[in-house]
Design goal:
By secondary structure, the chain is of the alpha/beta class. It has a single domain, classed as Rossmann fold, CATH 3.40.50.150. The chain is built from eleven helices and ten strands. The strands form two sheets. An eight-stranded mixed beta sheet has the order 5-4-1-6-7-9-8-10, with helices on both faces. α1 runs antiparallel to α11, α8 packs parallel to α9 and α9 runs parallel beside α10. The chain starts with 12 loop residues before the first helix and ends with a strand. It binds S-adenosylmethionine. The site of S-adenosylmethionine has 21 residues, from β4 and α8.
Length: 282
């Protein structure tokens, strides 16, 4: 039974971290002409009006995308943030106001070229209905179904390049192991793929097993980016940060993202800090 709905968290610090990383990866892929297949295994709704009841209830975007939007003039000194914020402006109906936050399907599709492909998987029937309602390019395929199984079924792809985003809700503890197993199986079938895997930084440390399985899985290069949003109080539970692994990261991603996150962190609050390092290096 699925109960997670991303609308409650849309535009929070983890979304900013995840989508900025994804944006930077896409930016690199677009530098070459050869076609790319993008696969988003856990797509969500695609676009989130910030005034929607679910999103407004927790208002997590107020400690996420909102301070970046407010500081966008100053942030435009950084090339990655400048491009990301310009894209974000495209989705606002009234120029100056932040009214919508786009999900991964939108970040993946808005710069899709005619020769590229995008496949979006979403399992939840209600979330899928929202996704179906989004206006996306013709070369976007939406599938209601399991994204991890769907990814493996679609490999190898017909384009020379492949980029995959794996962004589960980790509602079930077994999802960490399922993600690790799927990433290794997928990389076995598509060794050249760039794969991004999001995970929560939990005080319970459940993500450690995922990281260790991938470290020991024989992959050549994995870059790790972690954003800690706040220091944890004693006895506290829950998510204190956001993590991204990038398998086969494009050259220069570490530097570009590191610089951008250095500007973003002070806006996310006291105690917010970013680290980037090689989790696996040949
Ligand atoms: N990637 C989205 C974004 O960045 O905007 C957010 C995705 S949200 C964290 C996770 C989504 O995965 C939820 O919408 C949930 O319904 C969906 N989901 C859960 N299990 C799934 C599965 N096995 N296959 C595909 N989607 C799944």
């Amino acid at each position: 039974m699925l109960s997670y709905q991303h609308a409650y968290h849309a535009g929070n610090f983890a979304d900013v971290h995840k989508h900025l990383t994804l944006f930077a990866v896409i930016d690199h892929l677009l530098r070459k002409a050869s076609p790319v297949t993008y696969i988003d295994t856990h797509a969500g709704r695609g676009l989130y009006p910030l005034s929607a009841e679910e999103t407004a209830r927790l208002g997590e975007y107020r400690q996420g995308v909102a301070p970046l939007w407010k500081a966008r003039e100053a942030l435009s000194a950084d090339p990655l943030l400048c491009a990301w914020l310009s894209s974000l402006a495209e989705v606002q109906h009234r120029g100056g106001e932040l009214e919508h936050y786009p999900g991964s399907p939108w970040w993946l599709s808005h710069r899709l070229r005619a020769r590229d492909r995008l496949v979006l998987f979403e399992l939840h029937p209600g979330e899928y209905r929202h996704l179906e309602g989004q206006a996306l390019a013709d070369n976007v395929r939406r599938v209601q179904g399991d994204g991890l199984e769907g990814l493996l079924r679609r490999l190898p792809v017909s384009t020379p390049r492949l980029c995959v985003l794996v962004d589960p809700s980790y509602e079930r503890k077994t999802e960490y192991a399922e993600v690790a197993g799927t990433v290794l199986a997928a990389m076995h079938k598509a060794r050249h793929a760039v794969m991004l895997v999001w995970y929560p930084l939990l005080l319970a440390g459940r993500h450690h097993a995922l990281l260790e399985t991938l470290r020991d899985g024989g992959l050549r290069k994995i870059w790790r980016s972690e954003l800690v949003q706040r220091e944890s109080a004693e006895g506290e539970r829950g998510m204190v940060g956001s993590g991204m692994l990038v398998v086969n990261p494009p050259w220069g991603l570490d530097e570009r993202l590191g610089e951008a996150m250095g500007r973003v962190c002070p806006l996310l609050g006291k105690g917010s800090r970013h680290t980037g390092d090689w989790w696996v290096e040949e």
